[in-house]
Amino acid sequence: MRGPAIPRPLRIVRLANFVTPTSGGLRTALEQLGRGYLAAGHEPVLIVPGDVESDRLTDQGRIITLPGPVLPATGGYRVLADRRRVRRILEELAPDRIEVSDRTTLRWTGGEWARRARVPSVMVSHETADGVLRTWGVPPAAAARAADRLNRRTAWAYSRIVCTTEWAEREFVRIGARNVLRAPLGVDLDRCRPGRRSTVLRAKHADGERVLLLMCSRLSVEKRPGTALDALAHLRGQGVRAALAVAGEGPLRVALERRAREERLPVRFLGHIDDRETLADLQASADLCLAPGPAETFGLSALEALACGTPVVASASSALPEVIGDAGACATDDPASFAEAVRSVLDGPESPRRAAARARAELFGWDRSIAAFLDAHDAAPATIRVPPQGVRT
Is residue 182 within 8 Å of residue 376, measured between CB atoms? Predict the structure, then answer.
């Protein structure tokens, strides 16, 4: 009599564009999922673009970097443009599963390569197509039509589509896609904790003002970082002595710095903070975090702030209302609404609002996220660990 099947290790090859050393949420998600797949006994391999070729083993699995061109006006984002090279590496790796984090330039890996090779494929929707188009100025009706066309092709190309929130899932529900699953992202609850709060660090960045606001974001059009400066100006016009710290880089930084100088707004531009311990200290020390991006499908930096005990004010147009719950507030995408939301949150007593932020974040551990992503791959934890495939030289 045959016993139950023993889960076997799977080689899960992941492909992603738009990942740089200064990337935020996507890079964090790729790292955490890679570590989780590895811990579950599988073999994750990540393929990303870079300036030079490399192939190395890391604590998140094997990472293969291929030279890729920089997209203009994106602040350094690169793409995997050499299809022949990518196709050849996929054939060499012979994956059991592929997971793709780009629905546009890499869609061919699902619709063309994976189908031919009979390899189950997953596309992770890290952004909404119509949301991104709208932030670039495309009228809503035209953005929705273009998104529907793109999403129909995407849903056909992959075995499954993974969305991190119900908000992100809606654009696929709208076109009747039946292969959509939901898997939330997570947060490091040990690194991000309220105990990191520092009055000294807060005083340094507040620079004599009574309220310290923080924005952790890429400074690019789709993130709408200017809304944070709008809200700050509105608050100060109402007599609120607030200052803003900005952690992040991007193509809009120079213009934002110029505006802050011209309007004499107390804004500190800290650039990209690579050390995550330092970033967590900053997130814990702020009074409130701003997340103005209207097309965010999850908002990892906002969730990290919540885990540090810092409430969040986010764009009501994004998925963040679903993530932050009652641990902050949501605002329409205008300065007065953001300023009013900030005031409403800060009007409450500090201890309860910080406790509520932490409690909300505790619903989003990475263990839950990793389990959901493994389910999307039909990949139970393997009982046998295998060493990663040999490193190419």
Answer: no
With beta carbons less than 8 A apart as the criterion, state whether 391 and 57 touch.
yes
Strand, helix or coil at 348? coil
Q: Out of 24-28, 91-95, 173-177, 367-371, pick the least confident.
A: 24-28
Residue 92, token pair as written in the block: 């060499």
Task: Give counts: helices (H), strands (E), the chain.
Answer: 16, 14
Question: Chain-wide mean pLDDT for the chain?
Answer: 90
CA dist 102 and 90 (Å) reads 16
Q: How far is Cα 200 from Cα 177, in angstroms, rounded to an integer?
A: 51
* 3-class SS of residue 72: coil
Are 108 and 96 within 8 A, CB to CB? Answer: no
Q: Is the pLDDT of residue 144 over 90?
A: no
Q: Name residue 50's beta-bridge partners.
A: 67
Of 3-12, 23-32, 384-393, give the range with the top mean pLDDT.
23-32
Task: Give the mean pLDDT of 38-54.
Answer: 95
Q: Are 390 and 93 in contact (CB under 8 A)?
A: no
Domains and CATH numbers, the chain: 11-186+366-376 (3.40.50.2000), 194-361 (3.40.50.2000)
Torsional sign, CA 275, 100, 315, 322: negative
pLDDT at 147 over 70: yes
Nearest in space to 87 (alpha carbons), one of 116, 54, 58: 116
Assess whether pLDDT exceeds 80 at residue 136: no
